[in-house]
Structure formats: structure tokens, C-alpha cells
Here is the input.
Amino acid sequence: MPTIADRLKNVSISASAAMTQRARELAAQGIKVVSMSSGEPDFPTPAHAIEAAHAAALAGDTKYPTMDGTPAMKAAIVRKFKRENNLDYEPSQIVVSGGGKQVIFNAILATCNPGDEVVIPAPSWVSYADIVKFAGGIPVAVPCHEAAGFKLRAEDLEAAITPRTKWLFLNFPNNPTGAACSRADMAAIAEVMLRHPHVWILTDDIYEHLVYDGFEFCTIAEVEPRLYDRVLTMNGVSKAYAMTGWRLGYCGGPKGLIAAISNVNGQNSGGTSTLTQAAAVAALDGPQDLLKERAAIYKIRRDFVLGRLSEIDGIRAHRPEGAFYIFPNISDLIGKTTKGGRKIESDVDFVMGLVEEHHVATVQGAAYGMSPYFRISYATSMEMLKEGCSRIAQYCKDMR
Ligand SMILES: Cc1ncc(COP(=O)(O)O)c(C=O)c1O
Here is the structure.
């Protein structure tokens, strides 16, 4: 076994992946597990996307792709940014990678020097901090408190920026809180950023289409065009089109930055699968009604879970505007003991007790940088949600 590189020393294994793995192990023992831990749509990929990949394969589109994205894919992305975000990008301002995750990885590797700081509103998706650490950068968490609706307040952002800050990450609708940004919220963030011209902004808009109750999504380069040259707008097909397994993400940004990202992309992959790109072109250019239809279903599920959680003593859940997560507060349960004799001293104890005693998989808030909370994903069937909520209710009711 070779010595493992120092750069991996502080990089952890994703907690949500670890919980999904535990749920699989229990299921393999024949136990009926309710999984509310995975951030993956339970819907199928649209048929027209699958058909496009099939047709591309039959037509011989099976050779090495252009490394930064096929011309057809880039053209579809250019159209998407214009149509949905009112953003003008040229094909030379676009890079396509193997998922949103790889876009972020490439962008950070292309720009972060050791010691560079990256401001990450917390709680946040588990991978951001690890990717920054991988590049030798320093993740700087800015808390987005429950009392502020888990939103990023301008004054907290301002306080986190130093001369060493390289990037600000934005992710609204957010994983894990579901909080989204109104135009006014975004304008306040933009105003801070205008005062700090040395800081770049990476906006992860992967949950763009998952907003409820008429909430309108917005993205920072559109809200404040004066920031356009400092913004990397990232998106992908995983969450919107239920294409997690296809692995395609993309970004639009200023040409110099895009060239650097493209360089990293070309070194760590030979480009994204041609068939995936054909499917993603069909998804972006095809009928978009399914986005609203699916959002309507997610909204029903969100409301159902919120309703059930509100009946449970000890759990307090904020109503999220988007994504498919709820991030309930369990501070009132800390110090209690479960029926199985487990002392709840942290949100890790809470989710471990829940999965081991009632076989419901969720993820501890600590994994996202805020405790004591836990994340519920409602990207699963109503039947599962009903069963999961009943088990959570019983788990909490039995605590002493
Ligand atoms: C906030 C956020 N960004 C990016 C991703 C990764 O997306 P992709 O599947 O396109 O790599 C996820 C997946 O969970 C996510 O929650």
C-alpha cells in the first residue's frame, strides 16, 4: 500500500453516502428500511432523454467527445441560460463535466492556491468544504441561522470576507435546508460582493426548478449584472431531470476562468459521455412541463412531512421554499434517552438511533456544519414518507 497523499488527510467520506450505505446493509439483512437520506429524485429520467441517448448510440456517436462539451450540448446550455436565467453566454464560456460535483471540483482546482479562503454559507452540501480542502484552500463557514430562515445575511457575509477570500459559494435553494433567496435577498448579497472585487462567486443552481408556493428562483449574475464577470453559474441535469446516474453538470462564466476550468477538465477526464450529452440536450431542449409537474408533487410531499413533524414533541421544522429537504431542529431532544437505551447527546446520536432502532435513514446536521439538526429528504414516495414519519414520531414519543 503506497503512502496516501497529504492532501487527502482532511477530506472525509460523505456522511449522506455513509448513511445510504448503512440503509443498504440493513435492507440486505431483510429489514424494511425507510430511506430519507438520499438527495436523489425518485422519478424516472424523461423518456425523450433516454431515447435521444439510444438514437445517438445507434447513429455511431460513440467516439471520444470534445473535452469541454459537444457543440450541440453547449448550444443547448447557451439557450437554457438565456431562456431561464436571462444570462448571455457564448459557447466559449461554457464547460460540460461529469456532474455538478465535477464542475465545482474543476473550478476550485483551477483557481485555489494553498491558503486561499472560500466562504461557504452553512449549513451546506457536504462536498464543498472537502473539495476546497482537497485544493489546499480553507473553507470559511458563515452560519445561516434558522431564525433568519436559514438565509445568508449581508452582515454575516461581510464579516467573513478577508483579503485572502477567493470565492463565495452560493446554493439557494439550499441543500440541506431548502432555503431559497428572493431577489431582494440576492440583491443584498450582491451589494456586499460589489464592495469586494477580489472575490469570485460560484453559484450552484442545481435545485433551481425545485421551488414551491409560487417562489421565484433567481441567480446572482442576473440580479446584479455588474458581477457577471466574477460569477461562475453552475447547474446540471441531475436534480431537475432526474438524471443523477447520467453524470452531467455545466457552468457558464468569464472566458479566462472557463479556459482554466476546461484545462483541468481535460486532464481529469476525457470529457463527458457522448450519450449522456445527447440525453441532456434532449432534456434541456425538450418539453419542460415535467419540471412544474414534479415540483407540484414535491410540494405535496413537503407539506405532508411538515404537517407530521409539527405533531411531534421535541421537533421543530422550518418551512423550506425549495429543494427536496427539510432540516428540523432537535435541540429539545438532546439529553433524552431512546427506548433502546441510547443517550441522545448530539444529532449524530439521534440519526444513529433512528436508523438502528426504527430503520429510518436520515443525515445528521453535523455533516452539513450545523447542529443539532437532521436532514430529511422527501425525494421518495408518499408511502415511504408516511411510514418514515410514523416511525420518527414513535421514536421521539418513546424517548425519556
Ligand atoms: C448542492 C448540490 N450541488 C451539487 C450536487 C451534485 O450534483 P451532480 O449530481 O450533478 O454532481 C448536489 C448533489 O447532491 C447538491 O446537493
